């Protein structure tokens, strides 16, 4: 097997935050050596650059392009929904994102297509749908027709349940269809539903969801919760990760620290358009500070397309500015993200035995600002892939952030539950909120978004934004 030598550069130890001169040898899909004076069959000159692990986005929606909210979900054929992910996945990989956890929208078929090499993209772990109680933000319903199935696809099961027995049943349905993770909405969304501070399920229901997910192959539960009470309830039930957590308070982070729940802030949901909701931006930063001070582990997730998928790496900068600092933010996007996903034995570090998922940056500065402009090369499973052009590249059909009407979102259920029927862009009351495993790959060991313009059309479906 060919030994590929990456030589002349530095290697970032994401655990310590220190970069040191070193070579890396890859053989097949593995890193086999890291150090100085190494040799190989082929050499790649990394002079002036820094190697670090491939990035991991723990909360995204790859089947939702930036234009998702302009489309009527009831007019979207199944094939179009799946094909929308192809340019998104390709772009993420070229930006150095080598692993993603999809927070709803992608099915097991898309994961299979990636595994078989039919399409290009990162490793994908799927949750299928966002599980919710009757009337929750994933319960699509219209007065004249009743319940609506936006997917019309047996591989995307009905996510609505009621009661503890219903909670166990919905987990089994998701697992049967190939879910790696169970995504649950514990609160409303930023602009729809019953409010970001209202809890949409009972403690008994949440405990049943977590327990059943663990019984079904030790899968983790990721919980969309903007408000503190929803996050606290989820943490006390043993959820693996809390998504968004915009308004976490001391009691919520204490529960998360005690239970070992992770925090996936998805700061892009508020920071991508900070002038739209300045109070939410400050609350979100405070939530991150409280979590860090309490010892709650943080992992990177974007909730894109709340912002264009091409802006995925800006989340690392937001985390740095919110209190993690450059080294901590890079660790949250690599090693700590791998730990959250139960993949730390396999990836997340530049170390012998780990997956050869690597990013070569120009320079050795840890400053995460405009990382996309510094990408020189990307390797996924030991294979070099084209990097996105410097300053680049949009996903096909995707506008740049400053070209998008409103501030965009990512859920067909929206990225986390918007209501196209005129929901208010509160974020405080009355508005809406939104509410993660085990140590096995793809299993476990929380979803907010920037609200789209209230003027941006969309089907008037409860809990949906398009």
UniProtKB/TrEMBL annotation:
Residue ranges of the region described as Disordered: 380-466
Record-annotated Amidohydrolase-related domain positions: 50-375
UniProt keyword terms in alphabetical order: Hydrolase
Composition bias type Basic and acidic residues, residue spans: 396-432
CDD domains from the UniProt entry: Met_dep_hydrolase_A
InterPro entries recorded: Amidohydro-rel (IPR006680), Metal-dep_hydrolase_composite (IPR011059), Metal_Hydrolase (IPR032466), Metallo-dep_Hydrolase (IPR051781), OTAase-like (IPR057744)
Lineage top rank: taxon: Bacteria
Biased composition (Low complexity): 433-442
GO molecular function, one term: hydrolase activity, acting on carbon-nitrogen (but not peptide) bonds
Gene3D superfamilies per record: Metal-dependent hydrolases, Urease, subunit C, domain 1
Pfam families listed in its UniProt record: Amidohydro_1
Identification of the protein by name: Hydrolase
Organism from which the protein derives: Rugosimonospora africana
């Amino acid at each position: 097997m060919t030994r590929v030598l990456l030589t002349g550069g530095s290697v970032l130890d994401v655990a310590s935050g220190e970069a040191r001169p070193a070579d890396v040898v890859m053989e097949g899909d593995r890193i086999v050596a890291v150090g100085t004076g190494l040799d190989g069959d082929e050499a790649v000159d990394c002079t002036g650059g820094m190697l670090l692990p491939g990035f991991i986005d723990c909360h995204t929606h790859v089947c939702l392009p930036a234009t998702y909210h302009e489309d009527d979900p009831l007019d979207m054929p199944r094939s179009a929904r799946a094909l929308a992910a192809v340019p998104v996945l390709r772009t993420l990989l070229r930006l150095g994102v080598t692993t993603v956890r999809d927070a709803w929208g992608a099915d097991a078929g898309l994961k299979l297509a990636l595994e078989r090499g039919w399409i290009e993209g990162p490793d994908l772990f799927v949750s299928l749908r966002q599980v919710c109680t009757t009337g929750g933000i994933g319960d699509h319903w219209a007065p004249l027709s009743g319940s609506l199935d936006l997917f019309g696809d047996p591989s995307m099961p009905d996510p609505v349940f009621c009661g503890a027995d219903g909670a166990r049943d919905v987990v089994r349905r998701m697992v049967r269809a190939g879910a790696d993770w169970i995504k649950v909405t514990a609160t409303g969304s930023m602009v729809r539903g019953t409010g970001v501070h209202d809890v949409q399920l009972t403690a008994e229901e949440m405990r049943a969801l977590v327990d059943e997910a663990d019984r079904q192959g030790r899968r983790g539960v990721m919980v969309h919760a903007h408000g503190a009470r929803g996050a606290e309830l989820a943490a006390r039930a043993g959820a693996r990760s809390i998504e968004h957590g915009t308004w976490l308070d001391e009691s919520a982070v204490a529960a998360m620290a005690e239970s070992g729940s992770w925090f996936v802030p998805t700061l892009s949901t508020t920071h991508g358009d900070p002038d739209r909701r300045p109070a939410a931006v400050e609350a979100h930063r405070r939530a991150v500070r409280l979590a860090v001070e309490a010892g709650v582990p943080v992992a990177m997730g974007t909730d894109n397309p709340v912002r264009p998928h091409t802006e995925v790496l800006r989340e690392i900068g937001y985390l740095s500015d919110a209190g993690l600092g450059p080294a901590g933010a890079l660790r949250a996007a690599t090693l700590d993200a791998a730990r959250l996903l139960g993949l730390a034995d396999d990836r997340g570090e530049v170390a012998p035995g780990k997956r050869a998922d690597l990013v070569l940056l120009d320079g050795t500065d840890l400053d995460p600002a405009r990382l996309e402009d510094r990408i020189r090369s990307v390797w996924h499973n030991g294979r070099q892939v084209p990097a996105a052009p410097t300053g680049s590249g949009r996903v096909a059909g995707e506008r740049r952030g400053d070209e998008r009407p409103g501030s965009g979102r990512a859920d067909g259920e929206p990225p986390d539950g918007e209501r196209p029927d005129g929901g208010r862009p509160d974020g405080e009351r009355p508005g809406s909120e939104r509410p993660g495993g085990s140590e096995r790959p793809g299993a476990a060991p929380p979803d907010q978004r920037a609200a789209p313009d209230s003027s941006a059309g969309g089907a008037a479906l409860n809990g949906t934004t398009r």
